[in-house]
Amino acid sequence: MDTSSPSAFVNGALLRRYIGQKVRTVIQVIGSDTGSVVGKSTDDLQIVVRGSSPPNPLTTYLEVIGIAESDNSIRAETWTNFGNSFDPQNFNELCKLANGEFKHMFI
Q: Single GO cellular component annotation (predicted)?
């Protein structure tokens, strides 16, 4: 695991705290167009991801690591297909823990 450039675990609501910083999230793909993917965050907010080319073909769930550009957009550096079966609630709880009481464990 590369620890030289850590990324914050975020859901849709937490994204606004990290504008201009490196983040990591999982989205459920709603649609895609040339150069962008629209997805639903694990807390049911819409996120637009732009940047390097996403994997082809896309699976239902996609991990994105990149720079938060706004409260609902990320410029992707890395995309990883997470398959068609994923528990978004578990990831959502991880985001809450990583930004709350246990934040010190994720720095």
A: nuclear lumen
